[in-house]
Amino acid sequence: MGRKRKNSADNKLPERVYRGKCAFEFRAKAGKCFKLCDLDASLSVVYKAYEEALLLTSNTNTVMHLINEYLESTDFKEKSPRTQKDYHQYKKDLIKAFGHMNTRAVKPLDVKKFIDAKAIKSGNAQANRHKSALQVVFAWAVVYEQSKINPCVGVKKLKEVARKKYISDEEYFLVKKFACPVVLALLEIMYLCAARPQDVLKMKYADCRDEGLFIEQSKTAVSQIKRWGPRLRAAVNLLKVTYPDITSEYVIFQPANGRRYTKSGFDERFANLKAKILAATGKKLDFTIHDFKAKSISDFEGSLAEKQEAAGHTNIQQTKDYQRKPVTVDTVETSKLKKVS
Q1: DSSP track, 164-197
Q2: Residue 34 belongs to a domain with what CATH number?
Q3: pLDDT(1) > 50
């Protein structure tokens, strides 16, 4: 891992990239200096120019080449769109840390140092996700004989503390009382359908079928039709009824222009809602948008297998992780009374 720069703002720059007098410069190990781009360029532009310069100074056995090759492979393209998007996000940090290294030179200790540093910056969960992505890349490399070993194997994931928050009915009542129509519609659909926010944000009125609401999960690619109920119909039609003069193909749309909401745009509205509730009631709500899916699965009446089917989970452990409402079970006393009766 490289040492910290004198200017803390430069810590996000790729390795061996520095600010010159009028441009960002890449100083190769061979001593040659490459002008990358102007100093006012965005970080993404800097990284793109860096990768191009690295191609000119290194052989095809670097981790950067390996990652780029994997992201163009059929194996990668078979992954879900959400996973592909995540891997492209992880790519920046992985190339910054390992891009210049020969694929056969990466050791488990290098991976361990990387995830420890990443955990300090972004938390254990993000560190583990980056490590998993790198492990997949190297597993692919081993198959295609571009690496003899997978340096991620044997490096334990960092401990993650599972979320335990269950949104109470009283808390949800506060949300519904103070929420704007946009936030209320999305959270209601999330709760009723056990859906992720990104899947509701992309939902269109064309997804409304006779038998229910069609949802294709971006993370698992599972397709389902959620049966209609009066409350779900009301949530889907809420913005259309509230803003009758706005035409949009999306169920959740911007009242000003009918366009689709971005995740960051909706996150801002949700943060404003929590601040509004705090100012009005003095209560600080400690839950996230994603906790509404956990409330949905927790409140669903049925067995764990039925909850799994309704949530569209690919394995039962996912469902268990979302089950946060305490389960009522018998005691020694009541179990005997049941046998007597």
Answers
A1: -----HHHHHHHHHH--HHHHHHHHHHHHHT--H
A2: 1.10.150
A3: no
